[in-house]
Write a structure and sequence with these properties.
Blueprint (H helix, E strand, L loop, with lengths): L13 E5 L3 H7 L4 H22 L3 E8 L7 H24 L2 E6 L7 H13 L6 E9 L1 H17 L10 H6 L11 E4 L18 E4 L9 H12 L9 H4 L1
Parallel strand pairs: 1-2, 1-5, 2-4, 3-4, 5-6
Helix pairs in contact: 1-2, 2-3, 2-7, 3-4
Length: 245
């Protein structure tokens, strides 16, 4: 059991997960892709509860990318309906575990029904303190960075910010993740080893963990294994081992 090996005093403050493999999971079993996405919601629940159980403060899940809008319309429609029903179902889980829901991305692109459900759950959980669960929806990191550049440029033009004042802190304040710490651990399931336009600025010093487990089969024990692996690594942030020790 990896939970017994984890140092609870040295947990990553922010874990992000690229939840990959729903379609392949369904294909392997001769099922429709939609059933893979539905099964993936069980993995979400178990991983969220696992994070809350051990004391992870921030978890961000890549739920729907800007590129995902290019998928077949039927699949997109199913994903959006699944988002609405999942938010309703998981409200109890969030409340019981004192978890605050957050969302990042171009949320205006979501169907109105999904926006309404999302905003209601965000509002109902806004005072929860144990953990922040962030859903990246209609999210693309390049789009986020373009938005940030435009926002800061307009403020420089309006003399609200001087050119000389722009630093990492200013950039962080103008990202969707302005209220979140940088990512410490990025997990991607299904064996793929790429970032896929996810939190490119925020993962600058993150530890990357890739697993062959398809997302619908991923459970808290797999999460604990990833955290244990993270804790075996030496994070130097550009320094030498001697400086860290």
């Amino acid at each position: 059991m990896f939970i017994e090996k984890i140092n609870l005093k040295s947990l990553p403050k922010h874990i992000s997960i690229i939840m990959d493999g729903n379609g392949r999971w369904a294909k392997k079993k001769g099922l429709l892709r939609a059933l893979g996405h539905e099964e993936g919601t069980k993995a979400v629940r178990d991983v969220v509860e696992g994070c809350a159980e051990i004391g992870v403060e921030n978890l961000t899940l890549y739920a729907f990318s800007t590129e995902n809008w290019n998928r077949p319309k039927l699949e997109v429609d199913i994903l959006m309906r699944l988002l609405v029903t999942s938010l309703r179902k998981e409200m109890k889980t969030l409340s019981q575990n004192d978890i605050r829901l957050n969302a990042i991305g171009n949320l205006d692109n979501l169907p109105k029904k999904a926006q309404k459900e999302l905003n209601e759950v965000i509002d109902k959980t806004k005072d929860n303190k144990r953990m922040t669960l962030t859903l990246a929806l209609s999210y693309g990191s390049r789009e986020e960075l373009i938005h940030m550049v435009k926002d800061i440029s307009q403020k420089v033009k309006n003399d609200e910010i001087s050119l000389e004042a722009i630093d990492e802190s200013i950039i962080n304040q103008h990202l969707y993740t302005r209220n979140l710490p940088d990512v410490d651990l990025l997990i991607r399931t299904s064996g793929e080893q790429r970032i896929s336009n996810f939190l490119l600025w925020q993962i600058a010093y993150a530890e990357l963990y890739f697993t062959n487990v398809l997302w619908p089969d991923f459970r808290r024990e797999n999460l604990f294994e990833a955290i244990f692996n993270y804790q075996t690594r030496e994070r130097r942030f550009g320094k030498t081992s001697e400086q860290i020790s």
